């Protein structure tokens, strides 16, 4: 499983030659200006919630690639109404896709579309694929619901928001890492806007002092699990 950070909360995941994008917010992110969305491959686009900073490029990429949008019922329906292919899910439900199993799990946040219309309830994804399991938390507060995840899934990587203000910050993300029983964390949702700028060295040191590993990737950088 290969994971690429495209800035903010945008990820590329490659499993067995299947390309998955998560929460594409790239063309509107000045920090990601070196990423061309017209060159990104996508068979599926996973959307955690409807906020602007998670959906800006969904339509353009899905139209070009015919990718299937996977999200909650309201967001999936919104894109189906625009003529895109979508797979609706809801909290606690899982589905076996060609690349692995996806479960839509709870997040504590909100989920309106940029025009104010209802985007359902926000979520995160647990992906079990190619003998590697990851948790993409989405925008969320720290929540005890995270403790449900390791009851079923041994995670190899937890992708957690760390920017604070709109989501968990560093200290809560360290607790979240305990809750999901995964000490290997990829941080996201930081630095994009003034409200969520973080001190990278301090963040990494806090994780290190808790016997955990916080990875912060450059935009466009990949890791292999
Ligand atoms: Ni959000
Ligand atoms: Mn966000």
TrEMBL record:
The keyword Protein biosynthesis does not apply. It holds the Pfam family Lactamase_B_2. Keywords: Hydrolase. InterPro entries: Metallo-B-lactamas, RibonucZ/Hydroxyglut_hydro, UPF0173, UPF0173_UPF0282_UlaG_hydrolase. Residues 7-189 form the Metallo-beta-lactamase domain. The keyword Glycoprotein does not apply. Gene3D superfamilies: Ribonuclease Z/Hydroxyacylglutathione hydrolase-like. One of its GO terms (molecular function) is hydrolase activity. Belongs to the UPF0173 family. HAMAP family: UPF0173 (MF_00457). This is UPF0173 metal-dependent hydrolase ICJ83_08250. It comes from Aestuariibaculum sediminum.
